[in-house]
Each structure stands twice: as structure tokens, then as C-alpha cells.
Amino acid sequence: MATKRGFRVRLSTPSAPLNTVPRRGRVAIAAAIATCLVAAAPAFADTGGVYFDGRANAAAGDPAHLFNGSFTGGFNVGIADRVMPNLTSGGFNTALGYTALFFNTTGDDNTASGGNALINNTSGNNNVATGVAALGNNTDGDSNVAVGFEAATDSEHGSANTAVGFQALRKNDTGSLDVATGYQSLMNNTDGTDNVATGYQSLLGNTHGDANVATGVGALSDNTNGHDNVALGNDALPLNTTGDHNIAVGSQAGQNLDTGDENIDIGNQGKNGEAGTIRIGDNDQTAAFLAGVNGTSLNGPTQRVLINANGQLGTAKSGAAKPLSAAAGRRLAAEVRRLQRQNRQQAKEIRALRAQGA
Predict the structure, then answer these.
(1) Is residue 151 within 8 Å of residue 164, measured between CB atoms?
(2) Parallel, antiparallel, or unpaired for β 2-4 and 49-52?
(3) What does pTM read for this prediction?
(4) What 3-state DSSP class applies to 232?
(5) pLDDT per residue over 211-262, tens digit each?
(6) What is the separation, in whole angstroms, between the first and last Cα of the chain?
(7) What kind and span of H or E run contains 35?
């Protein structure tokens, strides 16, 4: 370990202005100052010291707490009062700020900027934390990016998460592959994975839900365990808690749904408790057009599509045929014979009229 100690040089005011000194004299003064700088006895500066060694490690801060005397890592850089004092073999780390990467021992390729950023990281690799306490409790999670005050600060073991914004993914513990962009987005997530939250408090209450996509202010904000939901729009699906496989598109779309599954609400607020329902538009729409229907022929049996007073589409129910009783059968046979006789009589009259016309 090699330490270059700081020093101070006090320059006194010359008795005569420098521009009055002959050029040869000015050269002599400059040479003298340079000699003093080179030969000055090393001493700690009042504000700290600088460290560097043959393994390309460099640090500036409190000279008593720049790395330690036994670490073997290389290419580490730090600026703070204490720079990675617990490092053992970790390399290619950068720590800027009070206690940033303080407990890191074997973690590699981490960048921490801000007070307490990645402070508890020990063996996690390839993490980037920018902001006070960003990824502060990460211990062995890898490939995380946290930007903002307390972004993903409670995440300990999660990997491949991206948190950008004030307290985004703040309480995440083991959840991985989550993306949170916006103030307190996915803030309460603990072990949910594969979620994407973009917007102020989007997926705010999610704890265990997986594979949700929320884009917009407050989108899916109350979701806790629901999975595979898509909410696009401000306050889309805001009350959904445990419902799965719902799709809501538009501002306040699906805002009445809470636990139902398999719903699709486009420009519609939906209805509480329903499942497997598609709703498109609301009372503001007075006409509907669907391309690809008119003029298109269908193969095989077809049914007529009907619409009721509530706007629900469906097909007519066909009543089940009932067997005829013996009496009803006799009456039907008699009616058929009567119609046959009537047809024969009408045919006879038609022939007679044609003969008269001829």
C-alpha cells in the first residue's frame, strides 16, 4: 500500500510586482518554487489524504480509512471520508459518498454514488446505485440499477431490477426483473417479479404479484397479489387487488374492478365483481363501427348476433324440441291432409281458369 500525503504551500506577497522582475529573475523564481514543491516534506493536509497503489486502486478521504491493509482487489476508486474499508478481493468498484459500498468485500463492478448507497453490499456484482440510500440493503443481488432517494433501498437479494425515482421499489426484498420508473412506483413490492410500473405510484401496493404492466399515474396502485394484468392510463385498474389477466386501456379504465379475472375494459370503467367480460366504450359513444364484418362470408353453420337493451351482444337461444303426444300427432296429420286437399282443389281451379283464357 502506498499513500501520498498532502501538503500546503504558502506563497508570500513579493515586495515588488512580478512584472517588474527581470525575465531571467522570473524564471529563477519559478524554478525555485518547483524545487520546493518536489522536495517538500510530505504531511497530511488538513482535510484528508490520497491513496493509490500498484493495483490501480485510488481513493481520497480520511487517510485512516482508505481501503485496508490486507485487501487484494484492484481497479477500485473511492471518494469519501471512508472508502470501502471492508474490501477484500472485490475489483472495479466505484464509491462516491459517505459509507457508499462500506461493507463490500468481494463484490465486483459496482458503482455507488450518494450517502449510504450500496452500503450493505457484500458480494453483489454489476450494481449501479445513485442517490442517498439507493440499494442500501442489497447484499448479494446482481445487475440492479437504482437511481433516486431510497430507490430499492430494502432490496437484499433481488437481481436485474431497475428502479428510477423517489422510493421506487423501496421495499423490494427478493423480487427480480422488475422495472419501476416514477415516484414510489412498485414501492411496496417484496417478492413480485417481472413487473413493469411507469408513473407516479403505479403498482404502489403490489407485494407478491407477478408479470403486471402499469403505465400511468396510479395505475394498478392497489394491486397486491394479482398477476398478468395490463393497465394503460391514469388510474387504470386502480382498485384491483387480486384479480388476474385483466386488461384496462384508457384513463380510469376498469376502475370499478377489484377481484375479477379475465376482463377487458377499453374506455370503460367496468363493473365490480364481474369476470370474463369485455366492455368497450361508455355512454359517451353513440355509434359503433367494426371493420371486416360487412360483406364477409362465413363457412359452416351461422347464428344471428343480437343486442339487448343493456348493450350486451349475444346469439338467440333455440328452444329444445318436445316430442308430440299421440293426440297432437293425429291432429297434425289431419291438418296436413286437409291442406293437401285444399292444394289439390286450388290446382284444379287454376287449370280451369287457364282453359277459359285459352
Answers:
(1) yes
(2) antiparallel
(3) 0.75
(4) strand
(5) 999 999 999 999 999 999 999 999 999 999 999 999 999 999 999 999 999 9
(6) 132
(7) helix 23-39
